[in-house]
Amino acid sequence: MFANLHRTHNIPYLLAFLTSTLLYLWYGFVSDVSVSDSALSFHREQARSGSWWQWISAHFMHTNFFHYALNMIGLALLWILHAEYASVKSFGINFLVLALGISLGIYYFSPTLTWYVGMSGVLHGIFAWGIVIDLYRKRKSGYLLLIGLVIKLVNERFFASSTFMAELIEAGVAIDAHLYGAVVGLGLGVINVIYDRHQRAQNCSKVK
């Protein structure tokens, strides 16, 4: 796995890490404005009234150290699992589409969620995207990862109590964002596969 990594595969993960880290340090130790009051967090009314950047910026924000650390650990795990699939361009497009998709999902389908921060929804989406590529490349581990993702989402939706995690991150766990991220990520993975097959077919026709 690591043998297939090129230095450029590290860049998008590093950029996501640095952006989240700088924002965490700013709001945690410098700014007098709390994360919940920040103009970078997703606030339903503000987003609707023209604060368009919140649809993206909220996904780099975190409520406290535990929230930040958990998501950065998740980002590192995704780097280990699927960094070989990611270029700066593909990761950037995926991140933007996932952030927008999750924010739109929250806005239209989770009306009780009035504000949101955190990268976990996007991470679920990047994970789902990587699973589709695993399956496309006939990696058996993809099936195990897919089963694990489904079990996690079902458990969050119907069985798990999020009280402990909510206390840890000092905010409610937005399980809807995880679901929206996974759905959008699966869709991105399918689009990636269709595009790759189209490119391969074109290359084969040129050779003939």
UniProtKB/TrEMBL annotation:
<protein>
    <submittedName>
        <fullName>Membrane protein, Rhomboid family</fullName>
    </submittedName>
</protein>
<feature type="transmembrane region" description="Helical">
    <location>
        <begin position="90"/>
        <end position="109"/>
    </location>
</feature>
<keyword id="KW-0812">Transmembrane</keyword>
<feature type="transmembrane region" description="Helical">
    <location>
        <begin position="143"/>
        <end position="165"/>
    </location>
</feature>
<keyword id="KW-1133">Transmembrane helix</keyword>
<feature type="transmembrane region" description="Helical">
    <location>
        <begin position="65"/>
        <end position="83"/>
    </location>
</feature>
<feature type="transmembrane region" description="Helical">
    <location>
        <begin position="12"/>
        <end position="30"/>
    </location>
</feature>
<feature type="transmembrane region" description="Helical">
    <location>
        <begin position="115"/>
        <end position="136"/>
    </location>
</feature>
<dbReference type="GO" id="GO:0016020">
    <property type="term" value="C:membrane"/>
</dbReference>
<dbReference type="InterPro" id="IPR023826">
    <property type="entry name" value="Rhom-like_SP_proteobac"/>
</dbReference>
<dbReference type="Pfam" id="PF01694">
    <property type="entry name" value="Rhomboid"/>
</dbReference>
<keyword id="KW-0472">Membrane</keyword>
<feature type="transmembrane region" description="Helical">
    <location>
        <begin position="177"/>
        <end position="195"/>
    </location>
</feature>
<dbReference type="InterPro" id="IPR022764">
    <property type="entry name" value="Peptidase_S54_rhomboid_dom"/>
</dbReference>
<dbReference type="InterPro" id="IPR035952">
    <property type="entry name" value="Rhomboid-like_sf"/>
</dbReference>
<feature type="domain" description="Peptidase S54 rhomboid">
    <location>
        <begin position="50"/>
        <end position="191"/>
    </location>
</feature>
<dbReference type="GO" id="GO:0004252">
    <property type="term" value="F:serine-type endopeptidase activity"/>
</dbReference>
